[in-house]
Design brief:
Residues 1-25 form the signal peptide. This is Glycoside hydrolase family 3 C-terminal domain-containing protein. Residues 26-64 are annotated as: Disordered. InterPro entries: Cellulose_Degrad_GH3, Fn3-like, GH, Glyco_hydro_3_C, Glyco_hydro_3_C_sf, Glyco_hydro_3_N, Glyco_hydro_3_N_sf, Ig-like_fold. Strand 5, helix 9 and strand 6 form a beta-alpha-beta unit. It is globular and about 75 Å long. Helix content is 29%, strand content 18%. Among the domains are: 456-655, Glycoside hydrolase family 3 C-terminal domain (Rossmann fold); 702-817, Immunoglobulins (Immunoglobulin-like), CATH 2.60.40.10. It contains 24 helices and 27 strands. Helix 8 packs antiparallel against helix 17 (451-464), helix 17 (451-464) packs across helix 22 and helix 18 (514-522) crosses helix 22. It has 818 residues and is of the alpha/beta class. The relative contact order is 0.11. A 7-stranded parallel beta sheet has the order 3-4-5-6-7-10-11.
């Protein structure tokens, strides 16, 4: 088993580096290279009231008397221990490593300051440890068998026990407990919300804020203080497995979600001491995709202007506006700069320009050696510390004995070590941990997966469903007209494949499959005949005959195909998620053939696609009457699919990413420059997407009319509002997702043909007409990054288009800016 390729956090970082820690010290540090040049000038940000000046933040900032007093008492070994918050791994993966996370005894020894790293003269006995990452994720999301998973009460008691040990040490510094939180806390029993693209499909920032407030509440209840893998980067290459965490390919929509979730998690008004709040760790800064070939850790070749024009907005909102207090440095090189050693990205951009005032996590300091930027572990330690990496998640000699040696030999200034430790201690102080590091175990039992959170998971799953095709209004199915449903496919009766990755495992509560949910919904009124047909992977077609027979015997066939996320990191059949990049976007195994076999029976066929990425589905789109994308909808996903199919709820989700016709079209996002957007067809297929960004439909129809502006002429710092009327022209109430796009008619640089700048969801009764309004703020919605890399608003005309998808703009109007 290749431990170096199991997990980005644990098994790429910690397990792979463990052998190096066991082996001892590395050669001495070479002379450090000069700092990277600062980025090109951009307009100075407006200061946040009460914020410290950039120069103060760069130096580590002023700290409280308590923090400074602690620093004065700390040895180098004490300080280094505070910077190492290792990912918790099962002992069977660690072998003879000094990694202290594999057993209860080892963890307690680390907390007490009894862990020894290095060998010989370079041996180092660490001070009391700084905390742990993912302590509640005992099973690595299902990878490792755990006979007795801890309940929420037991998770809280475990954290309290470790905190008591920490408080009883010479320094009494509380632990900082960090964990994954992509779409729910990962402790067994926690609520499992829909995965990233599913949440993105809701097009509802307010709902996203509510979801992550619940996630924060459950995490803090069991003793977790910070949640990581809250993705602020864009999802612009579906080949990339870790795109499963991201919300959307669009910067406006992603920024809106980030702007909602950060205050919801951290508590409005700085309420981090609350038992409802956690620190938000936005990942991974500044970006990990689009990378070369869609391959994890491969380099990113993108220019500064493109980065600023397209990718910076969610980070600006998350840090400069919402105040997120943690981030993780990406593992990539960007235009040749290894981010873990880049002062340009981790200090100049992050702290000075974006006014970040928190803690930076590093998980791949070894990337500096891998990319031949550092020759030794000591050199890598110096580069990382100077750049601004504060905490290391990987149990790696670089930030352990080799960092100590570099400080001892004068190769790294101890003031840099103090700067990082000061940031970590200040964060612990902001969380109120010095006053109260403990949690109420009984409250954890009441809060985790409580009834309101379960209801919220169901609401999010319902709103994530995206109906892409509904020929002849086959859906919704009517229970009084359908006598038998043939439910077919590998994901039809597999509840684990609905949950995504980094989910609470085991759930400790019900997570019904689509089959279970459909049977409960229909009861005795409709017969549900189930046949698996085939697996998600493999070539076995022995189940096809039974699937065909079931379809022939039914009024309608529902075939559930897609991806597989169950089984944890070790599962060879997992097809999406971390370390599961793909060169093809077609359905895996023989699933396509299964669809064709069922369709050939002549029974009306609905395809339900369970996926964490955009897939290429040209055959299904061309031949099947109905196509529903269910994403990875979480613990209530089975019920949401069943209710959508039978019209108990309507599908109000919209595509947050572009679905291509074929992988050969990549890169393909909706916001293409004019030449690509207007391109002729390939010789073998159209150049257009199969399903455009923003696409989706409900169970009624709408007409757009009467677009108008409050002011048709504004200044470069002005604002106006655009209004449009929408009328429900169908026979039932429905929800329309109204989208506002902007085109700069003439600019000094080439820009995307259209850019999303507004979203509104409106419930409209049959026959009713409502007015939908959007603010248009020039300094926010009409900017570009010019040739000098300045973010500006240029005078000229802009076309505002309003519609139901990026390729369906029904009303347009011109706005002049002077």
């Amino acid at each position: 088993m290749d431990q170096a390729k199991i997990s980005r956090r644990a098994l790429v970082g910690a397990a792979a580096a463990a052998a190096a820690v066991t082996a001892g010290a590395a050669p001495a540090l070479a002379a450090a290279p000069a700092p990277s040049p600062s980025p090109a000038p951009s307009p100075a940000p407006t200061p946040t009231p009460g914020a410290r000046p950039a120069s103060d933040r760069r130096a580590g900032g002023s700290a409280s008397r308590r923090v400074e007093a602690l620093l004065a008492r700390m040895t180098v070994a004490d300080k280094i221990a505070q910077l190492n918050i290792p990912v918790c791994l099962p002992q069977e993966l660690l072998g003879d490593s000094t990694d202290p996370t594999g057993t209860v005894a080892n963890r307690e020894a680390y907390v007490r300051g009894r862990t020894v790293v290095g060998t010989g003269a370079g041996q180092l006995r660490l001070g009391p440890g700084g905390g742990f990452f993912g302590l509640v994720n005992q099973t690595l999301s299902g990878s490792v068998e755990v006979p007795h998973p801890l309940t929420p009460r037991e998770q809280a008691e475990q954290h309290n026990r470790l905190q008591r040990l920490a408080r009883d040490t010479r320094l009494g510094i509380p632990l900082l407990e960090i964990s994954e939180g992509t779409h729910g806390s990962v402790g067994p029993g926690s609520t499992i919300f829909p995965e990233g693209p599913a949440l993105g499909a809701t097009f509802d920032p307010e709902l996203i804020g509510q979801v992550y407030a619940a996630v924060a509440r459950e995490a803090r209840a069991v003793g977790i203080h910070a949640l990581s893998t809250i993705t602020a980067e864009l999802n612009r290459d579906p080949r990339y497995g870790r795109g499963i965490w991201a919300f959307s390919e669009d910067p406006y929509l992603t920024a809106a979600f980030v702007g909602a979730l950060v205050p919801a998690m951290q508590g409005a008004g700085g309420g981090l001491t609350s038992d409802e709040s956690v620190v938000t760790s936005l990942v991974t800064f500044p970006m990990e995709s689009p990378n070369v070939g869609g391959l994890e850790t491969s380099s990113i070749e993108i220019g500064e202007r493109a980065f600023r024009q397209t990718h910076l907005e969610p980070w600006r909102v998350g840090f400069a506006e919402a105040g997120a207090l943690m981030t993780e440095a990406c593992e990539q090189t960007i235009d040749g700069l290894v981010v873990h050693g880049s002062r340009k990205y981790l200090t100049d951009l992050l702290r000075d320009e974006l006014r970040f005032d928190g803690v930076v996590i590093g998980n791949d300091l070894r990337s500096l050696i891998r990319e031949h930027v550092a020759a030794t572990a000591q050199e890598a330690a110096g580069l990382g510390l100077r750049a601004g990496v504060d905490i290391s998640l990987a149990w790696d000699e670089i930030y352990l004995d080799q960092l100590a040696a570099a400080v001892r030999e004068g190769r790294v200034d101890e003031a840099l070590l103090d700067r990082a430790v000061r940031r970590v201690l200040t964060l612990k102080e902001r969380l109120g941990l010095f006053e109260n590091p403990y949690v109420d175990a009984a409250r954890a039992e009441r809060v985790v997966n409580c009834a309101p959170h379960k209801a919220l998971a169901l609401r999010a799953a319902r709103e994530s469903m995206v109906l892409l095709k509904n020929e002849g209004e086959l859906l919704p199915l009517a229970a009084d007209r359908v006598r038998t449903v043939a439910l077919i496919g590998p994901d039809a009766d597999d509840e684990l494949n609905l949950l995504g990755e980094y989910n609470a495992y085991p759930a400790l509560h019900e997570t019904p499959s689509i089959r279970e949910a459909l049977t409960r919904l229909l009861g005795d009124r409709v017969r549900v005949r189930y046949e698996r047909g085939c697996a998600v992977t493999g070539t076995d077609t022995s189940g096809f005959a039974a699937a065909r027979a079931a379809a022939r015997d039914a009024d309608v066939a529902v075939v559930v195909v897609g991806e597989q996320t169950s089984g944890g990191y070790f599962s060879p059949d997992r097809t999406d998620g971390e370390l599961k990049d793909t060169a093809s976007l077609a359905l895996t195994g023989v699933q396509q053939q299964l669809l064709e076999e069922v369709h050939a029976t002549g029974t009306p066929t609905v395809a339900v696609v369970v996926t964490g990425r955009a897939l290429a589905l040209p055959w299904a789109t061309a031949h099947l009457p109905a196509l529903l994308v269910a994403w990875l909808p979480g613990e209530a996903g089975g019920r949401a699919v069943a209710e959508t199919l039978f019209g108990r709820t309507e599908p109000t989700g919209r595509l947050p990413v572009t679905f291509p016709r074929d992988v050969g079209q990549l890169p393909l996002t909706y916001d293409q420059k004019h030449a690509r957007a207007d391109a002729d067809a390939y010789i073998d297929m159209p150049a257009t997407p199969l399903h455009a960004f923003g696409s989706g439909r409900g169970y009624t129809t709408f007409r757009y009319s009467g677009i108008r502006l409050d002011d048709t002429h504004i200044t470069q710092d002005g604002r106006t509002r655009v209004h449009v009327d929408i009328t429900n022209t169908g026979k039932r109430a429905g929800t329309e997702v109204v989208q506002l796009y902007v085109t700069d008619d003439r600019a000094s640089v080439s820009l995307p043909r259209i850019r999303l700048r507004g979203v509104a969801k409106r419930r409209v009764a049959a026959g009713e007409r409502v007015t939908v309004s959007f603010p248009v703020v020039a300094a926010r919605d009409l900017t570009l990054v010019d040739e000098q890399l300045r973010t500006v608003v240029e005078p000229g005309t802009f076309t505002l288009g309003v519609g139901s998808a990026s390729d369906r703009l029904h009303q347009r109007i011109s706005l002049t800016v002077s």
